[in-house]
Amino acid sequence: MSYEVLGITVLWVFLFGYLIVASIDFGAGFFSFYSSITGKRHLIHNIIERYLSPVWEVTNVFLVFFFVGIVGFFPDTAYYYGTALLVPGSIAIILLAIRGAYYAFNSYGTRSKTIYMFLYGASGLLIPASLSTVLTISEGGYIEVDSGGKVTFLFSKLFTSTYSWTVVLLAIVSVLYISAMFLAYYADRAKDRNAFEVVRKYALVWSGPTILSSLLVFFAIRNHNPEHFEQMLNLAWMFVASFICFLIAVYLVWSKKRLGLSFLFVMLQFGFAFFGLVPDICLMFCIRI
User: Which of 112, 136, 211, 254 is deepest in the core (most CB within 10 A)?
Assistant: First the structure.
């Protein structure tokens, strides 16, 4: 195994870990806000708080390791991504600070106000949307380097790109789907039937948009980066396996059976799709100019 393959494999594992853990965290924040305006917060608040209390402080460790690892394994990426991620990265940091402030005040018993809950819930969707820019830019076409080596980030092209928006859509709905599936398992383990029925409905509702947005990304990347798309087809079985895992996970939640196994299939679903995106393991960070 070459140095590059080893490096990107380690980084991809950390990013996948962040995808799962952070999705549960971000989605729970949105559901907490949504339930408060629909009058169901008293049903699921305890379940969400019981999960978030021991987890939120370590969620971003995976993300820190990922970005530190990029610079460590692939120093040249800092030169390109430093410019490209200035705006979305700054937005993500501000939103993470808002969530951290909410956690701190909530832990000390400060009464939650609607505006605080709104910022908390909205940040849970905007953070993955902003961070998804990393994957979008890695497909190439959004950075130009002139003969003098000056890097120019094509913000307008990114903002008007169909592929870019499909990735943002997938990031948002995936967060809600993963979180709802986990909370359904968590509520079932806690034997909280009222909370379980609420989050189970959330899981089933967001399962459809998740698989549809996945298909949109799959076809959008065909037009944006045909070379990568052709390489992905060599691992088509991984995407088929991902879809089968999706069907099994949704069926188990729908039938209210073996919720722990259901969430395991959710992780396998995203694991197959996530690693299927890198048929050439080094391609993701070899930016095409």
Answer: 136
What Cα–Cα distance (Å) separates residue 152 from each residue in 81, 86, 180, 241, 246?
11, 12, 40, 39, 40
- Sort 63 into a burial class: Cβ within 10 Å, 0-12 / 13-18 / 19+: buried
Per residue in 128-186, pLDDT tens? 888 888 778 777 777 777 776 677 777 778 788 888 899 999 999 999 999 999 999 98
All domains of the chain in start order, with CATH: 3-281 (1.20.1630)
Q: pLDDT, tens digit, for every residue of 171-229?
A: 999 999 999 999 999 888 888 888 888 889 999 999 999 999 988 988 888 887 787 77
Confidence (pTM) = 0.85
**Do residues 6 and 155 lie in contact, with contact meaning Cβ atoms separated by under 8 Å?**
no
Q: Distance between CA atoms of 62 and 60, rounded to whole angstroms? A: 5
| Nearby residues of 21 by Cβ (< 8 Å), 6 or more positions away | 55, 59, 62
User: Environment class of residue 176 by beta-carbon count within 10 Å: exposed (0-12), middle (13-18) or buried (19+)?
Assistant: buried
